[in-house]
Amino acid sequence: MLLRVVGIAVLVIALVPAVPGRVAAADIFACVNNSSGQVNIVPPGTQCKKNEGLIHWPSSDTHDAIGSWFGRAVPSNTICSPGAPGCPVPPEMVIVFTLSAGGTLIGNDSTIFSGGAHSTAHGEWTANGQQGIQGAATFLQASPAGIFIGGFKNVIIATLVDRDRMQGTMDLYLYNYTDAAGHAIVDADGFPTPSPLAPPADCASTPGCTHLGVFTFEVRRIGAL
Q1: Least crowded by CB within 10 Å, which of 38, 145, 208, 218?
Q2: Which domain holds residue 30?
Q3: Do 134 and 43 belong to one domain?
């Protein structure tokens, strides 16, 4: 659904009741004229007029996905047969990650124990409505021989099935920004290249970047005992 805001198109990502259960300072509320599409930003708790609808863009501070999650990811569409000799795609990954209220994403997976060690993944996530999330994280990767070879970027899109269960997809990108000795290859600014901070869409045309494919996953909330 697209709305007109002084000539700018705005994508509506969430519709909520007039008084949501949890509100953060960073949440944005607006009343939208059903006829003209005019959008007026309003304070939380505002009652829109009869010919208006309320829109709520939730911040990550109140999102239902905040917390720690554990589960399993399996290949869905990858560049080679997972687990086959010479294929860098694992047949499965047991995964664990935490989504903080401030938007930080921290995660790890079971491939740390095979095929070369890697670091914990660090990144950010954002809300995609109150039940959805999207995010990206990167981690450092070594070869089976212990040589630093660069890093991965994982791009995550997921939806909460219920409060304690989430399903989604994970795109894996490998960035080889080191030489044979494990030293970083850098650009004119001294920054590792190809950079895992670049948009994933650039990977196909970027030497040293490989899109390994897509995994699907289901995770469950790690609750207090």
Answers
A1: 145
A2: 2-58
A3: no
Among residues 164, 136, 148, 137, which one has the least CA distance to residue 65? 164
Both 51 and 110 in one domain: the answer is: no
DSSP 153-179: EEEEEEEEEETTEEEEEEEEEEE--B-
* pLDDT one-digit tens code per residue, 23-73: 455 678 899 999 888 999 999 889 999 999 988 776 656 788 999 999 999
DSSP 38-71: -EEEE-TTPPPPTTEEEEEE--GGG-TT-EEEEE
Please name the residue that has the structure tokens 């589960």. 71
Residues 143, 202: Cα–Cα separation, whole Å: 24
* CB atoms inside a 10 Å sphere around CB 224: 3
200 three-state secondary structure: helix
Contact (CB, 8 A) for 133 and 125: yes
pLDDT tens digits along 175-212 = 999 999 999 999 999 999 999 999 999 999 999 999 99
Residues 182 and 163 in one domain: yes
Do 29 and 139 fall into the same domain?
A: no
Residues 94, 50 within the same domain:
no
Total structural domains within the chain: 2
SS3 assignment, position 110: helix
